[in-house]
Amino acid sequence: MTDSLTHDRPARKGLAAAALAGACCVVIAALVWTLFLRAPQEPAPYEVAGFEPMTADALAEEFFLVAPELLTVVYRAFNETGEAEIYDSLATVAAGDALQELYLERVGAMVGGGLDPSEEADQQIHTMEMLRIDQSREGERFTWNARWRVVGTVGHATHMHVRGNTYAAILTVEPVEGAWRVTGFDLTDVDRSEAGEMVAAEP
């Protein structure tokens, strides 16, 4: 009996040691996982037209440069004549309700300057100048209160209007499918007092 107990003790010690080692591994793994979850994660960079991918913090610092670029892309899209080209160009900087609104307003107040859309004017935007922009932020969602001036021409068969209109809008910008997009576009003011004179169209 004594010999049997003596031989069992090393086996029991081995099992106890193995169990202790296993428990330690579980505790260490749980600790490492907890530390990993609590460790600050690198913020995700998102694509943005005209720039290298930007994190939310980078966009917060560069918004006064990014906003004019996004609006410039919008006006380049307005210069397109085909519906598919207009929509696809706008989709590179806008999404959701803003995309639909900008697309539907392509021949409205943003470009036509109040002219009759039935006249099928040839409308071209030449320059866009940011006058003022303020920013507020909630996480990765930005709100820009902006005011800018657009100079362009609205041409017809026999004459051409030179337009120098000023617009104000509240823009919402946030990540959509890995890219910064304008998701809200609330036009708050249109000033056409700087509209130019009528000139003869080139033959």
Explain what you see.
The chain crosses the membrane at residues 15-36. Keywords: Membrane, Transmembrane, Transmembrane helix. This protein is α+β, with helices and mostly antiparallel strands. The protein has two domains: 1-41; 46-200, Nuclear Transport Factor 2, Chain: A (Roll), CATH 3.10.450.540. It has four helices and seven strands. Helix 2 packs antiparallel against helix 3 (83-90). The radius of gyration is 31 Å and the shape is elongated. The termini are far apart.
Q: What is the CA–CA distance across the termini?
A: 119 Å
What can be said about the biggest beta sheet?
5 strands, antiparallel
Number of separate structural domains: 2
Number of helices: 4
Determine the structural class based on helices, strands and strand pairing.
Answer: alpha+beta
Helix content class: 25-40%
Q: What overall geometry do the principal axes of the alpha carbons give?
A: elongated
Total DSSP E strands:
7
Oligomer: single chain
Keywords: Membrane, Transmembrane, Transmembrane helix
Transmembrane segments: 15-36
Structure described in brief:
Keywords: Membrane, Transmembrane, Transmembrane helix. The chain crosses the membrane at residues 15-36. The chain is of the alpha+beta class and 203 residues long.
Structural key phrases:
single chain; 203 residues; alpha+beta; Nuclear Transport Factor 2, Chain: A; five-stranded antiparallel β-sheet; two-stranded antiparallel ribbon; 4 helices; 7 strands; disordered C terminus; membrane; transmembrane; transmembrane helix
